[in-house]
What does this fold into?
Amino acid sequence: MTTLTKPGLRPANPNFSSGPCAKRPGWSVEALKAAALGRSHRAKIGKAKLEQAIKLTREILKVPADYRIGIVPASDTGAVEMALWSLLGERGVDMVAWESFGSGWVTDVVKQLKLADMRKLEAGYGQLPDLTQVDFDRDVVFTWNGTTSGVRVPNGDFIPSNRKGLTICDATSATFAQRLDFEKLDVVTFSWQKVLGGEGAHGMLILSPRAVERLETYKPAWPLPKIFRLTSGGKLIEGIFKGETINTPSMLCVEDYLDALNWAKSIGGLEALVARADANAAVLDRFADKSAWLGHLAVDPATRSNTSVCLSFTDAQVAALDADGQAAFAKGIVSALDKEGVAYDIGSYRDAPPGLRIWCGATVETADLEALLPWLDWAFATQKASLKAAA
It folds into this structure.
């Protein structure tokens, strides 16, 4: 039921951005007081903190002991590009995409690396491609969770254990909220500013033994910038995976990531994080099921994200508007909620269909999402009234 009367209860934390995401509950700047500021990241204290970040990442995500974990520059984008430029070209590659970031990796492989033996398996927003068509004798690049479409792979069952190619997975909005099947993944990338609400600028690169073998036995045909180099003299640069970063990291950001990891461990680790994200997404599921004006962009419930929940308009009058009209309507809702201070940054991604995108990751409190729901109805009602007045 929609109403023009403003709800009385407001979310305690109105931060529902899909990146950078809400800080953990109870966070304050005091959490950073132990940061190794003004010190070299190569000093004992700096290296110890970087090593601890890697150790806790492995522990909470349950990364296999023989997988390498490194901290790399330029957020998730840097980690993915490092993998693409360093590993691809040894064999053909299947690029699997169903939203803007996956499509961006396709563009890089086609226009920058210019690989001749490349297949695109694509689907529109709201759907997955036919994963049975993926050829795992080839390398495969895909996103686990489509941040801009709200569509994820439900599990890793579509990936064979006896694959010949490498699987390169951009998992930035899935890590710490969804169960990644590491045995099926040879490269996993993510960034700190997503599910744990850390600060940006740093990426994580996780490599399987098969990925390491490729790095040590294959040399790409193109030159690699220093910032992408993972080997020296044909051998993996082991220091990268022991806290010896390629470039200078922000020790303030490292401290914030450590704080988020310790919080995650304190509440029960991965299972607790997944449960929090699932509970949050369920709030929006129930709302969308009953709503007369809003529904999931993701068509199949089994593929709906529990972090970046994308919603589209189902109201007949709004749905009948052209793309510009729907975008303006969505902008009006987003602006109204922002002005009221009840929800920030919930517009759909610029390349996605017009609608809303509400982050439900583990740092968001379920009570805040529940408090948001009446405001969504209010914002819709006010925009619909303006639409009728203008007709």
